Amino acid sequence: MRRLLTVACCLILPLAGAACSRGTGEPVVGLITKTDTNPFFVTMKKGAERAARAQGLDLQTFAGKQDGDNEAQVQAIENLISYGAKGFLLTPNDSKAIVPSLDRAHRAKMLVIALDTPVDPPNAADVTFATDNYQAGKLIGQWALARFTETGTTARIAMLDLNPNQVSVDVKRDQGFLDGFGIAVGDPNRIGDESDPRIAGHDVTDGNEEGGRTAMENLLQKDPGINLVYTINEPAAAGAYQALKAAGKEQGVTIVSIDGGCPGVDNVANGVIGATSMQFPIRMAQLGVEAIARYAEDGTVPQNTAGKDFVDTGVQLITDDPQAGVEAKDSAWGRQNCWG
Questions:
Q1: Which parts of the chain register pLDDT below 70?
Q2: Which of 215, 205, 216, 132 is nearest to 175 (CA)?
Q3: C-alpha 211, offset from chain centre
């Protein structure tokens, strides 16, 4: 029966990176990421694979086709339910739309763990292991403010966000940056409601290089005087730099970002990115897999940090242009610890 169920499941897996249960008898754990192309999620997957081997778990991995692909994640959860998985780790593409699937997983006695991006409401997952995304944005905002204050330059800011879905991680990073830079936000649950004249505009990138390039091109057409670029992540930052370079403006524009991946740290060292906030996706995945292993063994359900709706896995500012009052590590440290 187990073998027949496994074969049946294999026939309904239209997901990037999906794999079928090996029938080993090991407890099954799932990892469902937003995509399987973003380096952040590739690294997270490697961390989960190492942790699963160490814990004696059968890891099944799934991913959406692109940022925002909720349907693929819904199908992944259905497949894990049919496998009899003990639980799964999820970076949600749509924090609200995925909740009914999480409810079905709970009815199947599965442990649900959000990684990186909280679900909405947060208690729809049993626990969330994540970066404090507001703090990550705030750090690069504080660094940028100190740098522009030091040079006496008035900022014209381009905001390169994720997508139109108002995903919580996108909103928190965006508004954390604005807070750090001293700009009041409008609706705390939405992006783009602020009225500060220093903001040239917002555009979306889908969190990838091509999207970053296109968004930067769009905003440069609107305001050629842009001199500060906030980006949702480092692939978007790389694309923004390409657009700036093509326009002959790369020398006069400061880019800040969030991720702390090895390619992004290299871009800090090479002067492409002025400062980035480093996350720790390997730590997220490891903590998540270990929590499911404990749950499978004795039913222990992990808890979020008291007073928060997540467990903070840390953030570190990386820059080779340190600013007074903003604690940071340099790119050499970053290269040794990227995504740890």
A1: 1-24
A2: 132
A3: 16
